[in-house]
Design brief:
Length: about 220
């Protein structure tokens, strides 16, 4: 049975539930998500206590300007492409905060933060107390503009690749577990960085690509 959830969009055009919704303010309380959630313009989108599954991509956050995403206590599972993708298509400051998000068995990425389609600005995202498992890539960050994903107290396990960073991007890893990702535990390419605070649990992964960058705790 699909779990009920809460969606809140401010000054947005968004698509959710079983069809299209376009409004200045959306307050969609206690609805089961049967269509993917697509956000393309507005100040912010908040998703709480949802199960989003068996779709193409579960949550697509692609604002054309500055905007904020917050997702908490949410499961994205068995989606054909991505669980959650943050991929702005304009110029602006975009932030995303993901807490207690579980991303299981997507066709590609569990959680992806991508600046490849942005024309300017920056992207800063954080994932806390979250799990990515059974995806092709667990946590993926791609930079066309400066793009940062910080992963804290989280798990990436049983994906093909646990962590991937490419281009003008930085992935920061703190207090997290990276286990049993058979292709690569992490893959770093095209000048990206994966920074570690040295307090992670890493074991049982395939050969890694690129060095981790150690960061001192303060």
């Amino acid at each position: 049975m699909e779990q009920l959830c809460t969606l809140r969009a401010r000054h947005a055009a968004e698509k959710a539930h079983a069809g299209d919704v376009a409004a200045r303010t959306v307050q969609a309380e206690d609805v089961a998500v049967r269509e993917r959630i697509v956000f393309t313009a507005g100040n912010s989108l908040t998703i709480e206590t949802c199960i989003v599954r068996n779709l193409s991509s579960g949550v697509v956050f692609a604002p054309s300007g500055s905007s904020r995403l917050a997702v908490s206590s949410t499961v994205v599972a068995n989606n054909g492409i991505n669980g959650i993708i943050v991929a702005p298509e304009g110029s602006g400051v975009v932030t995303a905060a993901l807490d207690r998000v579980e991303a299981y068995h997507q066709g590609l990425d569990g959680i992806i933060i991508s600046g490849t389609a942005a024309t300017g600005g920056s992207i800063t995202a954080v994932a806390t107390n979250s799990v990515a498992a059974g995806n092709v890539i667990g946590f993926n960050v791609l930079g066309g503009v400066p793009t940062i994903l910080t992963v804290v107290n989280s798990v990436s396990a049983n994906n093909g690749i646990g962590l991937h960073a490419s281009g003008l991007s930085t992935l920061r890893l703190a207090g997290s577990t990276l286990i049993d990702n058979p292709t690569h535990g992490w893959q770093i390419d095209n000048g990206a960085l994966i920074e570690t605070f040295g307090d992670n649990n890493i074991r049982g992964n395939g050969a890694n690509t690129g060095p981790l960058t150690p960061i001192s705790k303060q």
